[in-house]
UniProtKB/TrEMBL annotation:
It comes from Ruegeria profundi. GO terms for molecular function: RNA binding; RNA methyltransferase activity. S-adenosyl-L-methionine binds at residues 247, 287. Belongs to the class I-like SAM-binding methyltransferase superfamily. RsmB/NOP family. InterPro entries: MeTrfase_RsmB-F_NOP2_cat (IPR049560), MeTrfase_RsmB-F_NOP2_dom (IPR001678), RCMT (IPR023267), RsmB-like_ferredoxin (IPR054728), SAM-dependent_MTases_sf (IPR029063). It comes from the Bacteria. This is SAM-dependent methyltransferase. The active site is at 340 (nucleophile). Residues 134-385 form the SAM-dependent MTase RsmB/NOP-type domain. GO terms for biological process: RNA methylation. Keywords: Methyltransferase, RNA-binding, S-adenosyl-L-methionine, Transferase. Pfam families: Methyltr_RsmB-F (PF01189), RsmF-B_ferredox (PF22458).
Length: 385
């Protein structure tokens, strides 16, 4: 496909997404009806689509409309590139840009920074003078990080195994097990290093949330909101630690047994009904459902889907999870609260409200990771009674 044809494909996919079709579904639909597209074409179209969703407000302003075409015109203007070679009207290329398709100046900072207008004041109160740089970081794609699975390999062995398959990875400062992939990211899932369980795809700050726990042999650890199980596997990579994985939606745990098998990291799945018979636990990780604001680079549609009402609902769910889990911990155990959000309402405010309502509890650790430091944005706090 020519560069112009890739843009035309992105325009069609974006129109579907703006019409309400989920991002991955729309990309898959396009790939199915475009058998002529090679893997490089698919990757390039995907990059166009994700970039346009991350920057939906600013590209729409620059491109003159919130349509697939407007977003792609805005993308090209934002990159300072010429439109005429791409919007040529030739075969498979988008039609020539008309005089009506003019861009305009940004109305607000939130529009320039691609944050929903209602959210910008909260973003500023959470992040202070870092709000603008964090919002700018969210306009760009996330790096690819790996976790070295210490059950199978040490860091240098994993780096060498990846290098043998033309995947260049270097240590990331956020966590001792974290690697940042510099070259060959698209080869990871087919690589022997990945298939043999030497490495897992996992953001460095997600690894750091687990590394912040003092995990010793013999501890019984519950990952209460295990989801796909990324953190369960990181927990289970600690020798002698017994990991129980739970999720209110058991479907989300579906792939965890095969992932645990590949990693050589035993994890026991626990249903909601079985929790009481396994309690109390020494450590509970509550990686709570949240806005996902710390991972909006990877899942940018979430940035535009979030509403004030949903944010309020999430904070209520977060608080209720903490309250529920506080009765499942041994005396002297650690309740670790975590989110992949950078909004104070979901982080410090939830923990502070819990501590005010439960004076026997205290906080022993708190940290926030911001996207400006090259990881996803995450928060964690350790609570003890
Ligand atoms: C942030 S995700 C977990 C991500 C996962 N820990 C990981 O590292 O990949 C939050 C999870 O919480 C689950 N969840 C939502 N509401 C819940 C609730 N009330 N109790 C327990 N889990 C819940 C969701 O199904 C979702 O899988």
């Amino acid at each position: 496909m020519t560069p112009a044809a890739r843009i035309q494909a992105a325009i069609e996919i974006l129109d579907e997404i703006l019409g309400g079709i989920p991002v991955e579904k729309s990309l898959t639909n396009w790939a199915r009806r475009s058998r002529f597209a090679g893997s490089k074409d698919r990757a390039a179209v995907r990059d166009h689509v994700f970039s346009a969703i991350r920057c939906k407000r600013s590209f729409a302003a620059l491109g003159g409309s919130e349509s697939g075409r407007g977003l792609m015109i805005g993308a090209i203007r934002a990159a300072g590139e010429r439109l005429d070679g791409l919007f040529s009207g030739e075969r498979h290329a988008p039609s020539v840009v008309t005089a009506a398709e003019v861009g305009r100046d940004f109305d607000t900072d939130a529009e320039r920074l691609d944050i929903p207008e209602w959210l910008w004041p909260r973003f500023q109160s959470s992040l202070g003078n870092q709000a603008a740089s964090v919002a700018q970081a969210l306009q760009h794609r996330a790096p690819v990080h790996l976790r070295v699975n210490l059950i199978k390999a040490d860091v240098s062995t994993a780096v060498a195994a990846l290098a043998a398959e033309d995947i260049v990875a270097v240590s990331h400062p956020a966590c001792a097990t974290a690697l940042e992939v510099k070259e060959g990211a698209r080869k990871i899932s087919q690589s022997t290093a990945y298939r043999d369980g030497l490495v897992e795809l996992q953001d460095a700050a997600s690894q750091a949330v687990v590394a912040a726990l003092d995990l010793r042999p013999g501890l019984r650890v519950l990952d209460y909101c295990a989801g796909g199980g990324g953190k369960s596997l990181a927990l289970a990579a600690h020798q002698g630690v017994k990991v129980f994985a739970h999720d209110v939606n058991p479907d989300r745990l579906r792939d965890l047994p095969s992932r645990a098998e590949r990693a050589g990291a035993p994890v026991e799945l626990v249903s909601t009904a079985e929790l009481d018979q396994h309690a109390p636990f020494d450590v509970i990780l509550a990686d709570a459902p949240c806005s996902g604001s710390g991972s909006w680079r990877r899942a940018p549609a979430g940035k535009w889907a979030l509403t004030e009402t949903r944010l309020m609902e999430l904070t209520e769910i977060q608080s209720s999870i903490l309250t529920k889990l506080s009765s499942m911990l041994i005396q002297g155990g650690v309740l670790a609260y975590a989110t992949c959000s950078m909004l104070d309402e979901e982080n410090g405010a939830v923990v502070d409200a819990f501590l005010s309502a439960n004076p026997a509890w205290s906080e022993t650790f708190r940290n926030t990771w911001l996207v400006t430091n090259g990881t996803d944005g995450l928060f964690t706090a350790h609570l003890m009674r």
